[in-house]
Amino acid sequence: MIYVSTSCLRNPINVIRVLQEYEKANIENVELGSVHNFFDVKKLKQFNFNFIVHNYFPPPKTKLIFNLASQNKSILKRSIKLAKDAINLCCDIESPLYTFHAGFTTDPKKLGVRFSQKNILKKETSLKIFVDSVSDVIDYAKNRGIKIAMEPNVVQKFNLTNNKNELLLFADYDEIKQFYKIFKKKDIGILLDLGHTAVTSYWLNFDKNKFVKLCLDKTFAVHVSNNNGRQDQHNSLTKKCWQTSKLKLFKDVPISLETMNLDISQIQKNMKIANSAIT
Fold this sequence. Notes:
Blueprint (H helix, E strand, L loop, with lengths): L1 E4 L9 H10 L4 E4 L17 E5 L18 H21 L3 E5 L21 H20 L4 E5 L21 H10 L6 E5 H10 L4 H8 L3 E6 L17 H4 L9 E3 L6 H15 L1
């Protein structure tokens, strides 16, 4: 099943406007994404989409960089609350799945740019905080019958420290393997972002095909977008790009388009490419 992220449409800040456009285009499966302004979530009840929920949704009233590994007690508390609010929303709108980003060893002011090099925790400490937070979220989700999945981080050149990844958790398989020594895959899965995989594999020098294969049995959902293999660009799919070539492996899990800054006709073209890839 192909879902369309609400982040795909050009100028997506007003999520209700995005959903109205999707409704007109007869799009049925929607992932509620991470780039929207605060709004009254009760307004979602007017729509009849098949929803799944991702990361910063519902958007908080006060700005927050979600980080379940934060050393800042306020940010950590708010991040856990946001995850639980998202799980509550899943129950209200009949979404079977909530997915969220892996954590960071520092609290960034903004995503998509170089993180601050101050107040960086050791990875071991950040991992412990993250594991404790995720344990709390897993219990909350299980009690409400909602599946959850973690999205491995993307590592780009600007966030390398002496050619190493010191800032972003769960970007390579070694850390993911450690994660599954603690948690059962039936309790929490992976949201495998193929765009992230293409970029991270280049900068951390690992085999992207092997990474996909290792994650296959743990993957609850997929994000797909195209890029140049160096930057997380969220470009449109092509029939021959690497990300499209991997979709057939995941035809039994939700696949969400995260190709951004598009109009409806471009979104529909991407949907057609993705659907063709899995049939």
